[in-house]
Amino acid sequence: MAEAHQAVGFRPPLTSDAGEVELSAPMLQEIYLSGLRSWKRHLSRFWNDFLTGVFPASPLSWLFLFSAIQLAWFLQLDPSLGLMEKIKELLPDWGGQHHRLRGVLAAALFASCLWGALIFTLHVALRLLLSYHGWLLQPHGAMSSRTKTWLALVRIFSGRHPMLFSYQRSLPRQPVPSVQDTVRKYLESVRPVLSDEDFDWTAALAREFLRLQASLLQWYLQLKSWWASNYVSDWWEEFVYLRSRNSLMVNSNYYMMDFLYVTPTPVQAARAGNAVHALLLYRHRLNRQEILPTLLMGMRPLCSAQYEKIFNTTRIPGVHKDHIRHLRDSRHVAVFHRGRFFRVGTHSQSGLLSPRALEQQFQRILDDPSPACPHEEHLAALTAAPRDMWAQVRRSLKTQAQEALEAVEGAAFFVSLDSEPAGLTREDPAASLDAYAHALLAGRGHDRWFDKSFSLIVFSNGKLGLSVEHSWADCPISGHMWEFTLATECFQLGYSADGHCKGHPDPSLPQPQRLHWDLPDKIHLSISLALRGAKTLSGNIDCHVFPFSHFGKSFIKRCHLSSDSFIQMALQLAYFRDRGQFCLTYESTMTRLFLEGRTETVRSCTREACNFVRAMEDKEKTDPQCLALFRLAVDKHQALLKAAMSGQGVDRHLFALYIVSQFLHLQSPFLDQVHSEQWQLATSQIPVQQIHLFDVHSYPDYVSSGGGFGPADDHGYGVSYIFMGDDVITFHISSKKSSTRTDSHRLGQHIEDALLDVAALFQEGQRLKCRGLAEKGSEHSRDSLPCHTRGSRAPTTATNF
Predict the structure, then answer these.
(1) Is the backbone peptide bond immediately before 510 cis, with ω within 30 degrees of 0?
(2) Terminal C-alpha separation, the chain
(3) What angle in degrees, to the nearest 10, is found between the helix axes of 99-130 and 145-157?
(4) Beta-bridge partner residues of 313
(5) Domain locations along the chain
(6) Lower Cβ count inside 10 Å, N or C end of the chain?
(7) 168-200, pLDDT tens digit by residue?
(8) What is the residue-wise DSSP string for 641-708?
(9) Average pLDDT in the 138-147 region?
(10) Which GO molecular function annotations are given, in alphabetical order (predicted)?
(11) Residue 300: which H helix or E strand, with range?
(12) What percent of the chain has pLDDT over 90?
């Protein structure tokens, strides 16, 4: 999602000027430190690793094995073939009375060695099986005998009832692709957007890179891939996120929305109480590893490492580089309301506070009439400031207001009780949704603590939302938590008839603790500057959200096509109609098939996609011709998506090669050009991962409406989409108001028209387009366009829903 903006923004410098970071550490030392960081993480969670590390066995299986050996020994059988006798000889001689004890110890040691060898064999076998990615390349709906055999073996070697981290030791490491293949794929991806002259120049740079530098840089990457857990992920976190000096607001954070059509209660404190309780229930399950690992096809596990830092995590600003601070536990949340900060405990002596008790605490904050202290109201704007500025101010703040700062940074998460309502309204649905998205992404610039892993935002009418910092994990992780939260607080915890949380208040609870900030005079100017910058950045973002309800995933499935590829090709058509040209397109996909994998880029603007778009804009082309080109474009996109997921993408490999070149102080014009590219269309699909939590047939309105992020380029768009049930797709579009080339509402109209035009290529879709055009004509009080219209420019006005 938001990593597209960060990916084009990082620039590790080669010099050691005063304001820059020098990457002068020897390359071998950096590889050694990468591996050391991996091993430290493993050691810090040794006990959990032990419990999950023996999976698919269990500690009880050792007891069973030991008992079986003892029984065999009692029956005068030696399953060890003499090894236990040799072990007994190596044990100290404690005298005849301890002879039986030596036998038991020998049997225990033999059982432990045999048990460990069996577990190791299972892990190696499962890792080898999980290294096979041929199943990804299978045609949709078809499965070869080889893949069926692979699935059967995975079932045999994968134990039952896995915990969250059970598969971590068995996941393969992300492979380093061939540098020749990566360069070839890169040149293929940029061909549609470059002129002949520019492409020839780029190809010459690529040939020079392959001849002079590629083999050396690739050797270092191979070395790192053998030593560290992942050859790219730690550098991705550091250089793309933590070394970025830009504001986190809009540039790095992203948002997630509540139910689109339903607000379970209008009572703000009650909604906050249930939501906070549900989030802490999720944390409890996370700590106990009771969350099931994500399995593709119900069998292929994904890496779960990113779940570790959901809670109790803060991004701490530093000069030149931030760092992520994660606490093992936190028993309070930090709350912001009307410019004031509070510390609210989440536990009592008997355990987690009930939703009703939490509601009581939040209501006390809402009822507190005390005003904010001077400059306290705008203090959080510092977290939206450039990182170097915030790091310098934070040093003074830590000295003068250490207790208050620690209460915020050490909280489980941040809660903002907004004084304004939000969400879809009947009076102006389009504008209300846009304002809702803007409030979640940027707010007013001073009412979110953007450093926290996530902030829960509760509006005055009971609407919810999340603002998520991106460095610690990617969207599917926070999305998984958010799905659980919405389902739990609404369907399991529920509300009483008067809209309050169920249960009874606890009058013995102490009042929420008001945090007091002793703000030195010298940071008052910094707060004012940060607020001015945050308001400018917030005011420049143009958000547009619209649910596309003419068709959804069910129609696309009936067309026997990938729903994601269908949308991506429609986006190419929409962007071309919006700008009259093609551009590099960033689509984020996961690489969690590998240990500590994060994301890869799918370059969706392909030659096949461009051929399809040109055909759609050529009125001489027939629908069958356009449909044939559309299927070719979809097939190409699917091939790129599967290659990226299986570790054979382009961008992460080129990124890692670039970082190595910086460490080695090797200048590469080719890599410099690659990382100067601008992504004018950044896209992402919000996955729905826990369908079982929502009954979309009985409660069709109780589905998440997804989320969005800022544009990756000043003259570009950020587009995310989510399939809401079977018949609705919600789009979130962002752009900069300062750009004269972009307009989020205009692109939204083009997306709607492009989807209807693509659907009309199919016989069933022609009826959908006729109905869509008729509805549009009715809404805008104009004559409906003829149903066969294709290739004309779409109107630029926004559709009201």
Answers:
(1) no
(2) 25
(3) 150
(4) 326
(5) 56-134+147-161, 243-296+304-539, 542-646+679-779
(6) C
(7) 888 999 999 999 999 999 999 999 999 999 999
(8) HHHHHTT--SHHHHHHHHHHHHHTT---HHHHHHTT---SEEEEE-----GGG--TTT-TT-SB--EE
(9) 75
(10) carnitine O-palmitoyltransferase activity; palmitoyl-(protein) hydrolase activity
(11) strand 300-301
(12) 65
Closest to 455 (Cα-Cα) out of 492, 414, 421, 486: 414
Q: Are 735 and 718 in contact (CB under 8 A)?
A: yes
Whether domain 542-646+679-779 has CATH 3.40.50.300: the reply is no
Which among 798, 760, 750, 790 has a CA at the least distance from the CA of 574?
A: 750
Residue 502, phi then psi, degrees to nearest 5:
-70, 150
Closest CA to 209 of 183, 232, 177: 183
The helix-helix angle for 27-44 and 46-53 (nearest 10°) equals 80
Main-chain phi, psi angles of 162, to 5 degrees: -70, 150
215-273 pLDDT, tens per residue?
999 999 999 999 999 999 999 999 999 999 999 999 999 999 999 999 999 999 999 99
Residues 6 or more apart from 666 whose CB is under 8 A from it?
A: 213, 216, 217
CA distances for 743 relative to 167, 575, 737, angstroms: 45, 11, 7
- Report d(CA 11, CA 551) in Å as an integer: 43
500 is catalytic: no
Model pLDDT for residues 446-484, shown as the tens digit of each residue: 999 999 999 999 999 999 999 999 999 999 999 999 999
- pLDDT range class, residue 782, cuts 50, 70, 90: very low
Q: What is the pLDDT at residue 92?
A: 72
Given a contact cutoff of 8 angstroms between Cβ atoms, the answer to whether 633 and 218 are in contact is no
Q: What is the dihedral of CA 289, 294, 295, 301, to 10 degrees?
A: -70
**Does residue 795 register a pLDDT over 70?**
no
Q: Give the model's confidence band at 765: pLDDT under 50 very low, under 70 low, under 90 confident, else very high.
A: low
Residue 784 CB contacts under 8 Å (≥ 6 apart), including other chains? 773, 774, 776, 777, 778
- What percentage of residues in the chain have a pLDDT greater than 70? 86
Is it the case that residue 788 has pLDDT exceeding 50? no
Out of 123, 337, 470, 500, the active site residue is 470
Q: Phi and psi (nearest 5°) for 28? A: -65, -35
Largest CA distance in the chain: 104
Crossing angle (nearest 10°) for helices 83-90 and 99-130? 120
Mean pLDDT of all residues in 109-126: 82
The CATH architecture to which 243-296+304-539 belongs is: 2-Layer Sandwich (3.30)
Query: Under a CB-based contact definition with an 8 Å cutoff, are residues 246 and 472 in contact?
Result: no
Q: Which residue bears the tokens 């659980």?
A: 484
* Reported pTM: 0.87
User: Other C-beta atoms within 10 Å of 766: how many?
Assistant: 16
Phi, psi angles (nearest 5°) of residue 119: -65, -45
> At 729, is the secondary structure helix, strand, or coil?
strand
Distance, CA of 289 to CA of 502 (rounded, Å): 28
Contacts of 570 (CB under 8 A, 6+ apart): 751, 754, 755, 758
Please give the Cα distance from 491 to 262 (Å, whole number): 13
What's the pLDDT score for residue 47?
54
3-state secondary structure of 172: coil
CA dihedral 418, 279, 169, 150 (to 10 degrees): -100
Going 736 to 599 to 391 to 410, the CA torsion angle's sign is positive
d(CA 155, CA 126): 10
- What 8-state DSSP symbol labels residue 72? H
DSSP state of 18: T
Residue 21 burial (CB count, 10 A) = 16
From residue 528, alpha-carbon distances to 197, 201, 247 in Å are 49, 47, 15
- Confirm whether 243-296+304-539 and 542-646+679-779 share one CATH topology: yes
Tell me the sheet residues that pair with 513. Answer: 343
- 573, 613 Cβ separation under 8 angstroms: yes
Distance, CA of 290 to chain centre: 21
